[in-house]
Amino acid sequence: MVLTGKLIMCLDISSRGDMFHDLFRHRPNDMASIIPDKLHGCDILEGERGAVGSVICWDYTQDGEKKRTKEIIEEVDETNHKIVLNVIEGDLLGDLYKSFKIIFHVEPKGDGQLAIWTLEFEKLHKDVPYPTSFMDYILQVTIDIDAHNNE
Question: What φ, ψ does residue 39 adopt, rounded to 5°?
Fold first, then answer.
């Protein structure tokens, strides 16, 4: 029985990859003003905004429920517009997952850009669902931010 998994979703975006990377890494609270119905804030608990080793806490609404997640920035790659977040506490863990990692990066695709989200996780038991609802949520966040940046 497999308890570890990986979900990967790709989304064509019109915005530049460096803009998305900068927003997620350095200006996450700007996202709260763009999509206040989905994201309410992002606080730095330890370290510096966007720096590897920093601990951040996200407040958001997913599927009509207010949630909170605490993460450590594990890796940053400016060239590939990549950020790796390791969830250490909150609604993505608890009774569902033993570990949960969120990876975002942007790749060129023809004349455009491709936003790629990867979720790596270990379920606590076989009956835990795959995190498809959370993947749908972050894809919608990406779509909304991309639309806002192209207004």
Answer: -130, 130
Residue 68 and residue 138: Cα distance in Å, rounded?
14
Give dist(CA 132, CA 103) in Å, integer: 15
Structural contact between residues 119 and 77, judged by C-beta atoms closer than 8 angstroms: no
Q: Give the model's confidence band at 85: pLDDT under 50 very low, under 70 low, under 90 confident, else very high.
A: very high
pTM: 0.91
By percentage, how much of the chain surpasses pLDDT 70?
Answer: 98
In a 3-state reduction of DSSP, which class is residue 18? helix
Smallest CA-to-CA distance from 89 within 57, 65, 53, 64 is with: 57
> Read out DSSP for 52-119?
TT-EEEEEEEETTEEEEEEEEEEEEETTTTEEEEEEEEETTSTTTEEEEEEEEEEEEETTEEEEEEEE
Q: Among candidates 137, 97, 77, which has minimal Cα distance to 3? A: 97
Query: Distance between alpha carbon 19 and the CA centroid of its chain, in Å?
Result: 15
Burial 86-112 (b: 16+ CB within 10 A, else e): bbeebbbbeebbeebbbbbbbeeeeee
